[in-house]
Structures are given as structure tokens and as C-alpha cells.
Amino acid sequence: MPAEFAAENAHLLVVDDDARLRALLQRFLAEQGFRVTAAADAAAARAALSAMAFDLLVLDVMMPGETGLELVESLRRGGKDVPVLMLTARGGPDDRVAGFEMGADDYLAKPFDPRELALRIRTILRRAAPPMPALLPQAPVQLGMRWFDAERSELRGPDGTIRLTGGEAALLAALARRAGEVLSREEIAAALGTPEAGERAVDVQVTRLRRKIEPDPREPRFLHTVRHRGYVLRPGP
According to the model, what pLDDT value does residue 196 have? Predict the structure, then answer.
């Protein structure tokens, strides 16, 4: 599906225990052309997820009962790779890193401009959408017994497809496009569409990706740290 179609027709699930904010977001995002379903807590979100397919979750962190962080971590453990944008009144670097560690794709601190929220949503959806065919498609990249197809955002191994979150796929695609070349953390953050996330957030995404592509994440064979410079992907058998 073309990215423009995906962004304008996406079905969003907005999860927030603040009824007023939830209603405002539902109305604003509907005006932006999205289909929007709302849920007041994690339990209602789980019920909605079991009944419908969503293109993206807008998820509040601090909710009574199961928190947003706990919900996204549970979804990732269960193999659900739906993109997640987290909302929180606590927007410090440690809070953003915690969100990325749990598997979030982006993080927005309250209070926020609704226009920025819509922009972030479209950025994530474009990143997650299947790419348009290129005149010169990029060849799959070998990572030991696994192959990454940047055109399909798929990582495959002897046992089938390895699930990647949108952020992990975007990170691996950015590194694969410039394999053998050192990318700074700033370049990586820009490629992920989260330039404000900070260096630690990039490090967290790299750590998560290593768990998917490295035989031993503690001794990386493919995704290397270059001290004081950034990261480099060195494909190979």
C-alpha cells in the first residue's frame, strides 16, 4: 500500500484514561482523516485489539491498573508489532528510553500540540508502510543465517520470519543502505524520524535490534559500535 494511502486511511487506537483528552484526540484525529477508536484503559485496549486490526496505537503511559509501558511490553512479548506512539506527562530522557526499551516507536510528552501528534503519527505510518517499488531495488543483506530484505522490511532465517518492530526495521534498513559505513547517532535518529529522542534512545534501539540479528548480542558480529563515532553494519555469512 502506498505510504500516502496508509497515512490518510489508517485506523488508530487511542488509549488514555483522561476522558476529556481522549475525546479531544478522537475528534481531532478524525478531522485529520484517520479512523479512530478510543479506549479508557489497557483492558479496553486489549478487547479492541482482539476484535479489530489497528495501524497504530496512541498510548498513554500513566494509567490506573496496567500501565501503557506494561501494555506495550506485553504486546511485544506476544509478537504484536503494531506501531506504538506513547504519550506521557513525564518527558525526560530516562522516560523516553524506558518507552523505547519496552518497544515503543515514538514518544511525545504532554502537553503537546495536536498538530505535532498528527505529524508524528504520519511519520511512523510512512516508515511502517511497505515501500514503493524502486527502479534499483536493494539486494537482501546477509547476516549469518539470516537475510534482511529492506524492500519488504523483513528479516528471515532458517525458522521463518523474525518479527521486527517498525523502529527496529527502520534502523536495520538505514544501516543496511549504508552497510560498511559508520553512521552517527544523530544520523540514525534522523533516519528513524525521531531526531529529538537523544543518543540513549538510539542505543536502546540498537540493543533491541542486536537481540534479533546477533548470535550473541554481547559479542556482535554484524552491528558494531565505533567508539565516539556511532554504529556500522558489516553484513556477512
Answer: 61
Length of the chain: 237
Q: Is the link from the previous residue into 111 a cis peptide, with omega within 30 of 0?
A: yes
Question: Domain ranges in the chain?
Answer: 3-128, 141-233
What fold does the segment set 141-233 form as a domain? Arc Repressor Mutant, subunit A (1.10.10)
Q: According to the CATH classification, is domain 3-128 in 3.40.605.10?
A: no
User: Has residue 228 got a pLDDT over 90?
Assistant: no
Helix intervals (H) in 66-183: 68-77, 93-102, 114-128, 166-177
For 23, the grid coordinates are: 475525546
Range 130-138, long-range pairs (CB < 8 A, 24+ positions): 130/1, 132/2, 132/3, 138/176, 138/177
The overall average pLDDT reported for the chain is 85
Residue 124's Cβ-count burial label (10 Å; 0-12, 13-18, 19+) is buried
At residue 8 the predicted structure's pLDDT band, cuts being 50, 70 and 90, is low
Pairing of strands 146-149, 154-157: antiparallel
pLDDT at 110: 87
Q: Of all residues in the chain, what percent are helix, strand and coil, respectively (each to 5)? A: 40, 20, 40
